[in-house]
Structures are given as structure tokens and as C-alpha cells.
Amino acid sequence: MAKEGKRERLCQLGALNPRPEAVHAPWFRESSFFDPLDLVQVKYEMLRHAQEDGANKAAAAALFGLSRPTYYQAEAAFEREGI
């Protein structure tokens, strides 16, 4: 899917990250697999980074350009419903 087409689709689904430039996780800059525009992927990677890599939750949120409350909301939603 072309980048603009993906952006439009993410917007339609309510999954467009409004601040992709705030994502500072290096793997989002080094690999085309990771897309800072995809808010679902950004939140999932934030949770994974804390849980699997042992990162502090506040630090993980900051690395992905999100707030600490957003981290806890995403964590609760993931535990309740999965991705």
C-alpha cells in the first residue's frame, strides 16, 4: 500500500498517529516495517518495549511520543481486548 493510501486508511479507521514525529524509537527510523503513522503499531511497540525489554513505563511512553496516562490506557485495553 502506498504511503498516502495507508495514511488515508489509518485516518478512516481512527488509527492515524497525530504526532508521528514524536516517535523516537530507533527501530521506527531504521526499518520500513515500523510506521510511526500507525498508532496501533506505535502503542503495541510501546507496550512490548516495557514488557519484553524491561523499559520503564514512563520512559517507554516518552520514547514513542505518548503520555504516561496513554500508556496505562493502552495497557488496560490490551489486557482486556488484545490488539
Structural overview:
63% of the residues lie in helices and 0% in strands. The protein has helices spanning 3-13, 26-30, 39-53, 57-63, 68-81. The protein is globular.
Strand content: under 5%
Instruction: Quickly count the helices.
Output: 5
Shape: globular
Q: How many beta-strand runs?
A: 0
Mean pLDDT: 95
Kindly summarize this structure in a few lines.
With 83 residues, the protein is an all-alpha fold. 63% of the residues lie in helices and 0% in strands.
Please supply descriptive tags for the structure shown above.
globular; 5 helices; 83 residues; mainly alpha
Write the layout of secondary structure elements.
Elements: H1 3-13, H2 26-30, H3 39-53, H4 57-63, H5 68-81
